[in-house]
Structures are given as structure tokens and as C-alpha cells.
Design brief:
This protein is about 55% helix and about 5% strand. It contains eight helices and two strands. Helix 3 (about 40-50) runs antiparallel to helix 6. The protein binds calcium ion (CA) (3 copies).
Length: about 130
């Protein structure tokens, strides 16, 4: 029994880290056109947001936010109205700014090249975390 418990914990840890890093550019590119649009980011962000909103109040508080694996943004920077919670609107506004910053060609999508220009770019990490979190 003890052995299985260990296996289970290792499997859970591996699964958790794979989830955080395996969402590559291509996985997020839902229509596989080699471009990431705001809509594609939104779909993924909404999923991550809902998964981490543990108490289901439609916002991320500091402890919920701290559990998002791979998040690089500061909680304080995303909480625009300083109420101690990040809602989807705040998250999205911050993401739009970041998206526009990276979208140098102003064509409303990001390519892998655009993302590599970001100081937050990490090979293997989801581009989502460079944009939203
Ligand atoms: Ca696409
Ligand atoms: Ca919450
Ligand atoms: Ca807020």
C-alpha cells in the first residue's frame, strides 16, 4: 500500500508539472494556423482562471493566484483596482496591453517569433503565462 501511495504522489507531481509547461505554442494554436490570436489566449486563460478560482467567486485572490504554476506576473500589478482580487476583466486588460506590446507588426496575432522577443519568454513554457499571468 505504501508503495502505491508513493507512485501516486510521483504521478501527480509529474502530471502537475507537465500541465504547467507542456502547453506549447502549438497546443494553444487551436486552428493550427501558426498564429496566436487574443481569442485563442482567452480560451486558455479562461480555463486556467476557472481551474484556479477555487472558491468560485469569479476572481483570483492572492492565495489562489499563488497556486497558478508558471505565473510570472506580480499579483499587485494585475489587481488594477487594488481590491485584493484579480477578476477576468483586470486580467484581460493587462493581457491586452502585453499582447499589443508584443504584437510589433500590429496584425493582431502573435507568432512564435513575436513571443521570443518578450523578456518573459521561456522556451517550453506556455506563452499564456507570458501574456496573462
Ligand atoms: Ca491560431
Ligand atoms: Ca476566488
Ligand atoms: Ca481587483
Amino acid at each position: 500500500m505504501k508503495g502505491w501511495g508513493t507512485v501516486f504522489i510521483i504521478a501527480a507531481v509529474l502530471w502537475g508539472s507537465a500541465w504547467a509547461t507542456d502547453k506549447s505554442f502549438h497546443d494553444m494554436d487551436a486552428n493550427k494556423d501558426g498564429k496566436l490570436t487574443m481569442e485563442e489566449f482567452d480560451q486558455e486563460a479562461l480555463k486556467v482562471f476557472k481551474e484556479n478560482d477555487k472558491n468560485g467567486d469569479g476572481a483570483l485572490d492572492k492565495s489562489e493566484f499563488s497556486r497558478i504554476k508558471g505565473a510570472q506576473a506580480k499579483f499587485e500589478d494585475l489587481d488594477a483596482n487594488k481590491d485584493g482580487k484579480i477578476d477576468m476583466v483586470e486580467l484581460r486588460n493587462a493581457a491586452i496591453d502585453k499582447f499589443n506590446q508584443l504584437d510589433r507588426k500590429r496584425n493582431h496575432y502573435l507568432t512564435e517569433e513575436d513571443l521570443k522577443c518578450s523578456p518573459r519568454y521561456k522556451p517550453g513554457a506556455s506563452p499564456l503565462f507570458g501574456i496573462y499571468f
